[in-house]
Amino acid sequence: MSNFVDTIMAHVKNMNQAEPEFHQAVQEVVESLEPVIAKHPEFKEAKILERLIEPERVIMFRVPWVDDRGNVQVNRGFRVEFNSALGPYKGGLRFHPSVNLGILKFLGFEQIFKNSLTTLPLGGGKGGSDFDPHQKSDDEVMRFCQGFMSELFRHIGPNTDIPAGDMGVGGREIGFLFGQYKKLRNAFEGILTGKGLEWGGSLIRTEATGYGCVYLAEEMLKTQQKSFDGLRVAISGSGNVAQYAAQKVNQLGGKVVTLSDSSGFIVDEEGISGERWDFLMDLKNFRRGRIKEYADKFKCEFHEGIGVWNTKADVALPCATQNEISEEDAQTLVKNGCFCVAEGANMPSTPEAIEVFLNNKVLFGPGKAANAGGVGVSGLEMSQNSMRISWTREEVDAKLHRIMKDIHIASITAAERFGSPGNYVHGANIAGFLKVANAMIDQGVV
Ligand code: NDP
Question: How far is the CA of 345 from the centre of ligand 1 (A)?
Answer without folding.
Answer: 7
